[in-house]
């Protein structure tokens, strides 16, 4: 299904820096709780990400990720996920995060 460029611009994808990461053992599928700073306009948002196969908690802090910041919040177990962190499946169908290849200001919008 094709969409128009106008449809694409409705999706607010921004870059942010992971400032906190915690295990999420209560999740149905293995996941990590993330807190991401998306800059002054969007602020700090939290997310649940199924990235345990390719990432360790300590390696995530300070890294930048891309996320959809204008989806409605979603309850995941006892945790409210406020942003969809983006990733692609690797050869084993495990998530690899979408990240800029150099540091960019938090809150920058994909276009």
Which short descriptors sum up this protein?
single chain, 111 residues, mainly beta, OB fold (Dihydrolipoamide Acetyltransferase, E2P), two-stranded antiparallel sheet, 3 helices, 9 strands, 12% helix, globular
Task: Tell me what you see in this structure.
- The protein has a single domain, classed as OB fold (Dihydrolipoamide Acetyltransferase, E2P), CATH 2.40.50.140.
- The protein is built from 3 helices and 9 strands; from the N terminus they run αββαβαββββββ.
- Helix content is 12%, strand content 38%.
- Strand 5 and strand 6 form a beta hairpin.
- The tally of domains stands at 1
The CATH class, by name, is: Mainly Beta
Which range best describes the helical content: under 10%, 10-25%, 25-40%, 40-55%, 55-70% or over 70%?
10-25%
Mean of residue pLDDT values:
97
Give the strand line-up of the largest sheet.
3-2-1-4-7
User: What's the tally of helices?
Assistant: 3
The second-level CATH architecture is Beta Barrel
Strand content: 35-45%
The biggest beta sheet is recorded as: 5 strands, antiparallel
Structural category is: mainly beta
Corresponding CATH superfamily:
Nucleic acid-binding proteins
How many strands appear in the DSSP assignment?
A: 9
- Summarize the helix and strand pattern as letters: HEEHEHEEEEEE
**How far apart are the first and last residues' alpha carbons, in Å?**
20 Å
| Spatial shape | globular
